[in-house]
Automatic annotation (TrEMBL):
Protein name in the entry: DUF2183 domain-containing protein
PANTHER family assigned to the protein according to its UniProt record, in alphabetical order: PHOSPHATIDATE PHOSPHATASE APP1
InterPro entries xrefs: APP1_cat (IPR019236), Mg2+_PAP (IPR052935)
GO molecular function terms attached to this record: phosphatidate phosphatase activity
A Pfam short name: APP1_cat
Domain named Phosphatidate phosphatase APP1 catalytic: residues: 132-287
Amino acid sequence: MKPYQIIYYRGFGSPSAVWLTGRVLRQNELVSPADEASFWDNLSSSVGRFLTHEVSNITVRIEAFGQVFRTVTNKEGYFDITVDPAIDPPVAQAWFPVRYTLEGILQPEGYEGAREVVKDGQLMIAPAYSQFGVISDIDDTVLVTGATSLWQTLRLTFLENAFTRLPFAGVAAFYRALQSGAVTTLFNPVYFVSSSPWNLYDLLIDFFRIQGIPKGPILLRDLDISPTMLSAGGHHLHKVAMIRKIMAVNPQLKFVLLGDSGQQDPEIYADIISENPDRIVVAYIRDVSRENSRDTAVQHLIETAATHNVPMLLVPNTVAAAEHAAALGLIDPDTLPEIRADRKADQE
């Protein structure tokens, strides 16, 4: 049998509520990609992400903040728990250690002997001095995906790796500027929300690291091949639920939203704005649509957001969004040359 693996997903929360989630599988450990991996290596790694052997009904012991919490995996191997850390976080700290252990489980013989199955991870709590939070889509907002084309999405997912996938030009520098804020000693938390499956989590972690995109929780969803998951409605409901969760555990923060016009980000963000008009500073929508009818629909949603006194902008590129953010006082204007240079380098 293959070894047990605890796949942890970066947790997040506040001094009174932290959300922790992950998955328990039996598989060989996934390795980071090589820069010049072959077609077959990429395909093999990608297929391996989806051919999983889930471990259900296993107790996971979670150690964080000097406390112990427990939860149990479901039939797909996922665990999910919200805990009250009951702490007063250090002023200058945003990331905190967390340890996951499978209770009563030892690795099978041949895998470094009989030992506990342990995984060390991290969780993020926004510091009290954060000015705002950032919630960003991933597909066709950060990562070039072609999400409006199924075949393009499949080709990029299965035949490319974290080194060969492309970011949208200038994204890394812009997101670093947002995280730093107008005063570059600050830390504004960045959250990434997507309807892509959790199976792609390790690829996204590697991609963000390689591209220099700020570290933050990445919220994906269970791979459930069903009409609900594949429908626009399933995509919409998942992302709205995740954004609500982020906002619920950060009641002190306002948010900047970033997405694209290709799928439903404008509709999703319009819903969030209507629910919480006083907590959304601005929404930036990258224009990736080639259809006039889609631009017309997005424009209508922009007008709806304006009735709540929240600007939603349809922007052609990262630099346009960054210039507007600088004018609003969200980022340091001195970061604009770096963002322009980053966009040019990415394009080249």
